[in-house]
Specification:
Elements (H helix, E strand, L loop, with lengths): L1 H38 L15 H4 L6 H23 L5 H23 L9 H39 L2 H25 L12 E2 L11 E3 L1 E5 L5 H10 L10 E6 L16 E5 L3 E3 L3 E4 L3 E5 L4 H10 L3 E3 L1
Antiparallel strand pairs: 1-8, 2-7, 3-4, 3-9, 5-8, 6-7
């Protein structure tokens, strides 16, 4: 009985030493996860550099409860691992708290600053606050539950060792690995636009089935194969023009003036034709669309779809 207890204590001690050695890896991996989760797809745009000169404007965006919770949870592993690394050298709890806070807020500010250059991301002060809270919660988890976590891991491993054979354990590990690989392989497809069907037509004012019409006027339609920045949105309203005609991101531009078909000014996409009755157009308001008349391209818009599939982002303005 004494021998068993002694071996148990040695195993627990080994687990503590292993955790201390793995702590820097936890910090590195959690930092990598943070950078991937907050900066993906890494499509930095030089056109957004002017926003850096006006930090208060760049950080004007708002956040919601779900985003706040996610930002807190994202930084807990980082604070937990960093606490164990620093704990070897700093025993004063006030110093530990300050270091964890500075590291968490510093990493968060770096991420938010880089997000200024990402058209698909929005920066906010609330994210820095929530990330810093997450780092401090990781510190609290380390000091309150470190030993409980390691003991729980030990007990879990002991149960597995006593209840499962080596063959069963290996089979379970292989199954879990295959499952993770399948999920990881499908994530890029799920989170991108690369699976859009390029055989479809462009409809304006109705569904392809013709049973979901809307009523109103449309003067112009512009499609780009990238997301535009807040500065470009403001310029679009002030200059009444979204993109210049020679912008490489412009993949379709229709102006609905005249009674006949409407051609794409870029020459990349097919002509839009009236469906149902011929619609009415005005010089100032454009085309009027309702349940009796709407617009549809003469053939599939594969040129638009293919470019959006490659960039996995788009902007539509009407």
């Amino acid at each position: 009985m004494k021998k068993i207890v002694k071996n148990h204590q040695l195993s627990i001690s080994y687990l503590y030493d292993l955790f201390d050695k793995l702590s820097p890896i936890i910090v590195i991996l959690s930092t990598a996860v943070i950078l991937f989760a907050t900066l993906f797809p890494f499509n930095f745009s030089q056109k957004l550099i002017p926003e850096i000169t006006n930090i208060s404007y760049a950080f004007r965006h708002k956040t919601d409860l779900t985003d706040s919770v996610n930002n807190v949870l994202l930084f807990i592993p980082f604070g937990f691992g960093l606490s164990n690394v620093i704990n070897k050298y700093r025993k004063n709890i006030i110093e530990l708290i300050l270091i964890i806070f500075i590291a968490s807020s510093g990493l968060s500010f770096t991420v938010e600053f880089l997000q200024i250059l990402l058209p698909s991301r929005s920066t906010t002060i609330a994210d820095i606050v929530n990330n810093s809270i997450g780092g401090l919660l990781g510190f609290l988890c380390f000091h309150i539950w470190k030993y409980k976590i390691i003991n729980s891991i030990w007990l879990f491993l002991e149960k597995i060792r006593n209840s499962l054979s080596i063959k069963t354990t290996i089979l379970a590990g292989i199954t879990y690995t295959i499952f993770c690989l399948i999920i990881a392989a499908n994530l890029p497809i799920i989170t991108s636009l690369s699976n859009w069907d390029n055989r479809l037509f462009l409809h304006i004012g109705n569904e392809g089935t013709g049973d979901r019409p809307w009523r109103g006027n449309i003067y112009e339609l512009v499609i780009a194969d990238r997301s535009i920045s807040p500065i470009e949105v403001e310029n679009a309203f002030s200059q009444n023009k979204l993109l210049s005609d020679n912008d490489t991101a412009l993949i379709a531009a229709y102006k609905f003036i005249g009674k006949d078909n409407f051609s794409d000014k870029t020459g990349n996409s097919p002509t839009l034709s009236w469906q149902g009755e011929s619609g009415k157009t005005e010089e100032t308001t454009g085309a009027f669309i309702d349940s009796r008349n709407w617009l549809k391209t003469s053939f599939s818009v594969s040129s638009i779809t293919d470019k959006i599939r490659r960039s996995s982002q788009f902007t539509l303005s009407k």
